[in-house]
Amino acid sequence: MGYCQRALKSNGALRGYVMVCLAAMGWGLWPYFLRHAEADGPIDPAIESVFPLAVMSLVTLPFSFRTRLPRALGPWLLMAWLGVSDAGNVLCFFGAYQKTSVAVAVLTHYLTPLLVALASPFVLREAFEKRTLGAAAVAFSGLFVLLAPWRTSVQHADILGALLGSASALFYASNVFTNKYLGKWFSPAQVLCFHGAVAIPIAYLRVPAHAPALGANAIVWLLAGSLLLGAVAGLLFLRGLALIRASHASLLTLLEPVVAVLLAAWLFGQKLGLNTVVGGLLVLGGAASVMLRAKASAPPAADVP
Q1: What's the pLDDT tens digit per position in 241-259?
Q2: 108, 252 Cβ separation under 8 angstroms
């Protein structure tokens, strides 16, 4: 392989890492948008999950028929499963929030990088990397320190919440693997658009029958968040995922809770303790360790849709 080809592959992988990082950091801004959306009153979590799914599907619809769609049934069944899995991820995660503390819900939800690192060699036939598994373990340890779940006493509801959070992690891992496969047949815009046909009805079933109507302020902020953190960040993540290993992409999503905690400290006046600083540095260290290997991790050209 010539120098130019190697440079293109390395640059492509580096772009993938940057795209996934930007998407994850964008997702960490959701508390800011939700705080402003709920300024006039609380919004049911089911509505907050359905709204972005609907906006993403509508926004990407005009771009979803520019390329030929697969005629085989298999890719469409996989797309349907992504809809089921994405809805399960959202519903279980919000369910964990309702049952237990934020720390327990987030910690169990972000078991995903470890699950993906362990399963990637079997699901995607990616080469097993001890370094990636170690980086995921370090980053998850940092998340544990950052969120400090030991500060709350464990109750029966916490166990149920942890189970729901773990279920969301399984669905989240499934999303990563499914998106990686779907990239062979569909563009990122098509994935965001078509999987909503299944995910939106499932999530909508959880919306209370007598939920209050959204006010103008809530609609504006939810719409802005859905466009920037839903559609734009979703497209960035899918584009980046196509260029790097799934295990690396899932590890970089740990930047989301770090950004959320820092944002809460900056905008909402929440104090940063020593555990926050140490935990954040561990998460960033785990993420940096895989980014530093961007050139060595570039997948073969045939693996990049």
Answers
A1: 999 888 888 888 888 888 8
A2: no
Q: At what angle do helices 255-267 and 30-37 cross, to 10 degrees?
A: 50
Q: Is 72 helix (H, G, I), strand (E, B) or coil?
A: coil
Q: Where does residue 67 fall: left (phi above 0), alpha (psi -120 to 50 degrees), or beta otherwise? A: beta
Boundaries of every domain in the chain: 8-303
Question: What is the rounded CA–CA span in Å between residue 74 and residue 97?
Answer: 35
pTM: 0.81
Q: Is residue 125 left, alpha or beta, with left meaning phi > 0 and alpha meaning psi from -120 to 50? A: left
Residue 142 · residue 276 · CB < 8 Å:
no
Within the chain, which residues score under 70 in pLDDT? 1-12, 147, 151-154, 267-272, 275-276, 287, 290-305
Which pLDDT score is estimated for 35?
84
Tokens 């369910």 found at = 95
Neighbours of 236 (CB within 10 A): 20
The C-alpha angle 32, 275, 45, rounded to 5 degrees, equals 30
